[in-house]
Amino acid sequence: MKTNFALEEKFQKVGGKRHYVQHLFGRIAGVYDLMNKLMSLGLDGLWRKRAARYLALATGETGLDLGAGTGDLAIAVIKGAGPDTRMIGMDITPEMLAEGRRKLVRMGLQDRVDLRVGDAEHIDLPDNSVDGCCSAFTVRNLTNIGQGFREMLRVVRPGGRVVCLEISHPPGKIFGSLFYLYFYKLAPLFGTIIGKAFEEYNYLPNSLTTFPKAPALKEIMEEAGWSDVRYYYQNGGIVAIHVGTKKA
Ligand SMILES: C[S@@+](CC[C@H](N)C(=O)[O-])C[C@H]1O[C@@H](n2cnc3c(N)ncnc32)[C@H](O)[C@@H]1O
To answer: Where does S-adenosyl-L-methionine bind (predicted)?
Structure first.
């Protein structure tokens, strides 16, 4: 895996990547949803809906959303599932969860989504305790991606699924160059001007530089023990949805 030495230095200064990421999301929690919509040109909701469909929780099942943030993926899962389906959402940033809890109350979904502080690399749940696990735009922020997928495997019951929605590297050369131009130059500019957060929205493209391409992420998931791993590019590969199953 590539190393971004400038970013590594920033992580070390504040006591590691986990602390850096936690403080960063703590600072932008209030503008996070709006900036997501603007930067993805409104596509983020559609991607989460598709990820929720791949998770395919049945009525009465319980799913886990890691790096749940303001709760949008957990909400998408609940909206697409039967009436007794429940979600646990975990995140290391309390400010993001606080935004999420307010949203759940506004939507009347507070009894179906339980947002808690928790770390995706050390999940505070027993083995085989959830029916499926998902994440959206979280895995890129982990210190050790393999450790995250091993933990997800541990807590999901045999036969359950993992779904990972993440920004990816578009495979087409021309489209890829246009995407990188947007992602590395324009998106941070939006973040700086509209979100008033220069450091935070410059971390966004930098976090992709070292993130594995879709086939390599599939290998990491397989090495962690997930079976039948497939990935589905969305919108030319701007994002990819990886899906795996825990052997029954
Ligand atoms: C880009 S946001 C995504 C939020 C949400 N999933 C969404 O779809 O909008 C990434 C989230 O992952 C959280 N995060 C980063 N590292 C984490 C970890 N080790 N465990 C749990 N959450 C983590 C951050 O606090 C942040 O809220």
So the answer is: 70, 91, 119-120
